[in-house]
Task: inverse folding
């Protein structure tokens, strides 16, 4: 009997943060988050009137903007993001 590989559901494969979650995880203000969006540093999606950020985009953002964060905090933020979705 042949077993079929299970394809992950869309909600299992894409992890999203909203503004409040991301501000809390990165310990930044909503204004700072808005500034990152405005300058194009942090990709985002809007669904209805809410703004969302993918886990992959946030991790890429952190890697590319180390100068904006203390270098030793990058691993801490990445671990918090990982733990947020993989409890």
Result:
């Amino acid at each position: 009997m042949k077993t079929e590989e299970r394809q992950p559901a869309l909600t299992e494969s894409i992890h999203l943060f909203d503004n409040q979650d991301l501000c809390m995880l990165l310990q930044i203000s909503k204004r700072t988050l808005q500034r990152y969006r405005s300058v194009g540093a942090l990709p985002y999606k809007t669904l209805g009137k809410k703004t969302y950020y993918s886990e992959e985009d946030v991790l890429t953002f952190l890697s590319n903007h180390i100068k904006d964060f203390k270098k030793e905090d990058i691993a801490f933020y990445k671990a918090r993001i990982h733990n947020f979705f993989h409890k």
Observations:
- The beta strands are 16-18, 45-47, 50-54.
